[in-house]
């Protein structure tokens, strides 16, 4: 397919009166959403936003955020979605690096941008006239819709180029795996400036599905939304799901869930076993900004037989494990490489990929004899100790199997003898937690000697990014 229909415009043609988005303040239909987008696109146009312009968006989750992104699409400009939790210096770098012509903010207190960038405040946008604008009804498959910056685990963050075809293909591949029901309601508790949140916005229009915007990704709040709106699908990271499963009243509270998509890294086995006991269908997923959300997900019929696996590549996608550019045998850990219509062609201002070739993810994993993917860790988080590869996620999973711990993070510390050795940071359920020595003895029963953390530090919180993913490179700052 060379052209992609305008997602929202097509949905309005088909089912205009279905509920599109629900927030704490209101709910609106697809037709009402479209009418707001038309108005805002007209105001943006009168401010000088035109096809091809680069428009940075610095907003938190809200219906206004969705209207803003669609208004940029209607005009044919490119939306650069900025993480509101970054420092002012980090945001300024991304605005400049992306060659943004405009910056859209909720209010003027957000940031002072470079002088070359025009700031538009959503609080004051009504003052501008609605100038007629030609709505883009179709987009070319390779036309860039959005840019998102990677979290910058190594060096400066890079702007991932995400085309309309990438977003479309991601939504189609997902629904071919998960299926679709008329009663489906998807809870958006991930930030929409990340691909996990934004992809659900596009799925809403493509599927004709209601989405509910959560105020925060906190277990108590999420549980209230699930009960109030009969949520059937939600995307969460490990911490949120673990907190949800620890609620006493959980069996009744999560009965409407038919799919809890779990991303953000390898899932600890104790968490998956707990979900199984509570009849919560967890679908482990694997994806990244460069794949416009998930590229592999465990199919429902394998949820119990392949526990811990991220499944197989979605329909129309492919993946394999490589080491030194050679395909690895089943069971052998190597770098995960992926290919598919949802994979980005590369990064802004950097050499782009040939999308017919495999994209090297920088993640480590293996496939079993049946071709199921098991994600091991980020290559950048790998600890090499005395020539042995140590995967932090494996140690974290063991630590989390202890009944007195609720969170764990592992990283490497420089060591004159071994090069690096693992150290752990954990959060206990109560002040009456086991001692460091008791925890080390617990690990000795379950881990090879070289994998046992040399130090275990009890802390009150672990460093996490805006998507609630553990940031292991920040763990040293807790010392």
Automatic annotation (TrEMBL):
Alphabetical UniProt keywords: ATP-binding, Ligase, Menaquinone biosynthesis, Nucleotide-binding
Record gene name: menE
Matching PROSITE patterns: AMP_BINDING
Pathway noted in the entry: Quinol/quinone metabolism; 1,4-dihydroxy-2-naphthoate biosynthesis; 1,4-dihydroxy-2-naphthoate from chorismate: step 5/7; Quinol/quinone metabolism; menaquinone biosynthesis
Purpose of the protein: Converts 2-succinylbenzoate (OSB) to 2-succinylbenzoyl-CoA (OSB-CoA).
Positions of the AMP-binding enzyme C-terminal domain: 394-469
Keyword Kinase (UniProt): no
Family recorded in the similarity comment: Belongs to the ATP-dependent AMP-binding enzyme family. MenE subfamily.
Domain of life: Bacteria
Leading EC class: ligase
PANTHER family associated with the record: LONG-CHAIN-FATTY-ACID--COA LIGASE (PTHR43767), NONRIBOSOMAL PEPTIDE SYNTHASE PES1 (EUROFUNG)-RELATED (PTHR43767:SF1)
Domain AMP-dependent synthetase/ligase: 10-348
Name assigned to this protein: 2-succinylbenzoate--CoA ligase
EC number: 6.2.1.26
């Amino acid at each position: 397919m060379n052209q992609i229909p305008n997602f929202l415009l097509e949905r309005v043609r088909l089912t205009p009166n279905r509920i599109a988005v629900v927030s704490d303040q209101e709910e609106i239909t697809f037709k009402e959403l479209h009418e707001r987008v038309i108005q805002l696109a007209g105001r943006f146009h009168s401010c000088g936003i035109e096809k091809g312009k680069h428009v940075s968006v610095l907003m938190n989750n809200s219906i206004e955020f969705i209207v803003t992104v669609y208004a940029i699409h209607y005009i044919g400009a490119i939306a650069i979605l900025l993480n509101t939790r970054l420092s002012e210096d980090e945001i300024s770098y991304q605005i400049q690096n992306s060659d943004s012509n405009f910056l859209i903010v909720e209010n003027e207190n957000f940031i002072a941008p470079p002088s070359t960038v025009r700031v538009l405040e959503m609080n004051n946008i009504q003052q501008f006239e609605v100038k007629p604008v030609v709505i883009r009804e179709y987009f070319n498959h390779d036309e860039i819709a959005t840019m998102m910056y990677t979290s910058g685990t190594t060096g400066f963050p890079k702007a991932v180029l995400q085309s309309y075809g990438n977003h479309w293909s991601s939504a189609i591949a997902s629904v071919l795996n998960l299926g679709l029901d008329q009663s489906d309601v998807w809870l958006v508790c991930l930030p929409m400036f990340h691909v996990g949140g934004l992809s659900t916005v596009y799925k809403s229009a493509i599927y004709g599905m209601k989405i509910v915007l959560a105020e925060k990704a906190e277990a108590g709040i999420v549980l209230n939304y699930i009960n109030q709106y009969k949520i059937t699908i939600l995307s969460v990271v490990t911490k949120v799901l673990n907190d949800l499963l620890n609620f006493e009243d959980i069996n009744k509270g999560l009965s409407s869930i038919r799919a809890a998509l779990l991303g953000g890294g390898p899932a600890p086995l104790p968490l998956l076993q707990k979900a199984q006991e509570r009849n919560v269908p967890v679908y482990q997923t694997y994806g990244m900004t460069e794949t416009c959300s998930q590229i592999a997900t465990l199919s429902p019929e394998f949820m119990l037989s392949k526990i811990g696996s991220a499944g197989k590549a979605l329909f129309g996608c492919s993946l394999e494990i490589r080491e030194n550019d050679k395909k690895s045998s089943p069971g052998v850990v190597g770098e995960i490489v992926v290919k598919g219509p949802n994979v980005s062609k590369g990064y802004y201002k950097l050499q782009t990929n040939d999308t017919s070739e495999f994209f090297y993810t920088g993640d480590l994993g293996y496939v079993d004899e049946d071709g199921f993917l098991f994600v091991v860790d980020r290559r950048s988080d790998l600890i090499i100790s005395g020539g042995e590869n140590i995967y932090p996620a494996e140690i974290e999973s063991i630590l989390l199997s202890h009944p007195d711990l609720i969170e764990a993070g592992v990283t490497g510390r420089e060591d004159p003898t071994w090069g690096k050795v693992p150290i752990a940071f954990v959060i206990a359920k109560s002040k009456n937690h086991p001692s460091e020595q008791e925890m080390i003895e617990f690990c000795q029963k379950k881990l090879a000697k070289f994998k046992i953390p040399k130090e275990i530090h009890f802390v009150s919180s672990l460093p996490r990014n805006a998507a609630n993913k553990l940031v292991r490179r920040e763990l040293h700052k807790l010392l």
